[in-house]
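Our consortium's second objective concerns turning raw sequence data into structural hypotheses that experimental partners can test. To show how far this objective has progressed, the report includes one record in full. It was chosen at random from the queue rather than selected for favorable results. The single chain below, 158 residues long, was entered without modification.
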Amino acid sequence: MSGIDDEHWMRQAFALADRAQQEFDEIPVGAVLVDAGGQVLGEGWNRNIVDHDPTAHAEVVAMREAGRVLGNHRLVGCTLYVTLEPCAMCAMALVHARVARVVYGATDPKTGACGSVFDLVADPRHNHRIEVVGGVLGEDAGRRLTNYFRAKRGRPLV
């Protein structure tokens, strides 16, 4: 897929992140899982608080939906677009699902596991490695997250 396609799908992920924030007051992270032909198989946004589920990250929600759509736990050939670099839990779920590509917006300097703090998806000890493209609309993605937390703390937005 081209960079233009990556930006298109990242904007879709932003719309899902907006839902997380506006409808559920969740941390605004959104994810879209697309097959090789460009068909959306799963969408998700953070649902940890509303679902009382520590595993309900946007990536996992999108992968669960895609698995149901495909009737398979393997998501071979798919690309996950997510507004924030996946954490270790999500990165390993992506490896186990055999996702082909991960495209993320903002780097996570504390818990990122797709190349910044950890690089779990490229570890040669796994049977499967994932192509990673980071920083797609990254400034916008980072600003959205920063402003969410600044608003929570009553601080001016950037």
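The partners drew two points from this record. The mean pLDDT is 96. The two ends are 32 Å apart (CA to CA). Both points have been shared with the crystallography group to help prioritize constructs.
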